[in-house]
Design goal:
It is a single chain. The protein is an all-beta fold. It has a single domain, classed as Jelly Rolls (Sandwich). It has no helices and ten strands. Strands 1-10-3-6 form a four-stranded antiparallel beta sheet, with no helix packed on it. A four-stranded antiparallel beta sheet has the order 2-9-4-5, with no helix packed on it. A hairpin with a 2-residue loop joins strand 7 and strand 8. The protein is globular.
């Protein structure tokens, strides 16, 4: 899948609020991967195949790091993203002019955290 330009990713249809402003709603593909963020960083796992934009879902705060197959461990540092509970879309970061293909995650709190990544584009 080619990397789309950021201004060309769109939903199949527009949904607007009462004032006519478009809402940030996008179709789901059903192409998902699951992980569990534990006290130590997970091993590297593949992001949804062919994705350039994904939705990250986590039931609690996690550290998540994207990269290529050799991505370093997720950690509480500036190489990982602190993802707060909930879900939201993110462009997969580029590493060496390549879209990230793998991720690793680690919980912030005391309990393990279910994590799901779904391809959007």
């Amino acid at each position: 899948m080619a990397t789309p330009a950021k201004d060309t990713v769109s939903a199949d249809r527009w949904i607007s609020d009462g004032g006519g402003a478009p809402l940030p709603i996008y179709p789901h593909t059903g192409v998902r991967v699951n992980a569990t963020a534990t006290a130590a960083s997970t091993t590297a796992a593949a992001v949804p195949s062919g994705a350039t934009v994904i939705e990250v879902r986590a039931t609690d705060a996690i550290w998540i790091r994207f990269g290529l197959a050799s991505v370093g461990a997720a950690a509480a540092d500036n190489n990982s993203i602190l993802w707060t509970p909930g879900s939201g879309p993110i462009w997969l970061p580029e590493v060496d002019n390549q879209t990230s293909t793998h991720f690793r995650c680690m919980r912030v709190g005391a309990a393990d955290v279910p994590v799901q990544l779904e391809a959007i584009a």
